[in-house]
Amino acid sequence: MSFDRETSSRSSSRSGSGGTVADAVSEAYRVEWARVLSTVIRVTRDFDLAEDCVQDAFAQALVSWTRDGIPDRPGGWLTTVAVRQALQARRRAGTLSRKLPLLLLDVADESPSTGDGFERTDVDRWPDDRLRLVFTCCHPALAPEARTALTLRMVCGMTTVEVAGVFLVRESTMQARITRTKKRIAAAGIAYRTPTQDELPQRLPSVLDTVHLLYAAGHVAHSGHSLIRADLMDRSLSVARMLHELMPRDREATALLALLLLTDSRRGARLTPTGELILLEDQDRDQWNHALIAEALTLLTESAGHGPVDRFAIMAAIATVHATSPAGPDTDWPRLVALYDLLYQRWPSPVVALNRAVAIGQSQGPEAALSALDPLTSDPSLAAYHYLPAARAHFLRRLGHQTEAAAAYQEAQALTANPVEAAYLERRLARLKA
Fold first, then answer.
1. Which of the chain's termini has less CB crowding within 10 Å, N or C?
2. pLDDT (tens digit, 9 = 90+) per residue, 305-361?
3. Cα→Cα distances 395→165, 306, 326, 380, 389, Å
């Protein structure tokens, strides 16, 4: 989100406390964006109008909070201002003559369900209204990538640049995709409501994909000065827990939560005290959050036999191998290769192929790894994916091919947008040259 620089500067200086107001607005944006936006959408039934009004409310906060002080409930203040602006805009536009782009169904029209997986669709039973917005963005009438992109933009408040980074596409491409998706919602009259029992199987996979991509976007941030974006990681974990609470017998929802917990257990061990990146195999496993690991393993044990083994279940199994290995050298790499083979059969993705090649290298040696990596260098979807040249550099270095490894490290450094990763690659390159 961007505000007028003059207004932001004025609000920081007038606060008299080193930018307290600007910090409060930034924190409110991180915590309250989705909650405020979902409320305003329920009032306006219009994505674009709601987004504009919420953005204006945050801009107003910079001025009003400097003058009047930071409110006790920033989210409530922002919601009130945004809703008031939205209602005024609708009055000016002439509500009765305007075609609403979203059809809001009454809660009374959403009949309860009694299936084992999803207990009822009454919105009052949903623990967070953001899920209502997630399921609307993930409607099956929308293309899969469009669903995820719109959810990241609307629910999570990510900028278009950040969403483009998640999908490895240009900003202009992503902006056009999001605009087309909003128009598609308007044309199709997509309802802003929770899905029924019959609709759930169509809607859930794209929601799970969205939550997973959201966590990935926070696991390695595409902007800023930090390795991670903790807000995105925490938000995706929160939504994953809600999904599991609503659908405790859905194996994929459970597996996704377990996968995120296993991955998140390593959060505190990924950096040195001075902020340098530590790779998985070099991390101090005593610093891992073993309570999260235990919770994840319990979830996977309880969900065994509840439905077919699908993508997130296999990915959780891969994460389990790492989580239960006493140390990096003790990792069962042949087992990981077999799991990646299975994952690639179910979900043939270039990124899966890349991870499989790394596992092959750890199991069978650097030559085998490079043989598996070479075909991927011509895949256009990986052209801007810095982990590919980084992996090649790692195995080329192990073979003693210094010049080629240095070139690969330089390519990876040029492609990464994360400064912590870039600094790690710079250190590897300097060590190689030395």
1. C
2. 766 778 999 999 999 999 999 999 999 999 999 999 999 999 999 999 999 999 999
3. 26, 40, 24, 22, 10
Crossing angle of the two packed helices 387-399 and 419-433, in degrees rounded to 10: 20
Q: What φ, ψ does residue 277 adopt, rounded to 5°? A: -70, 140
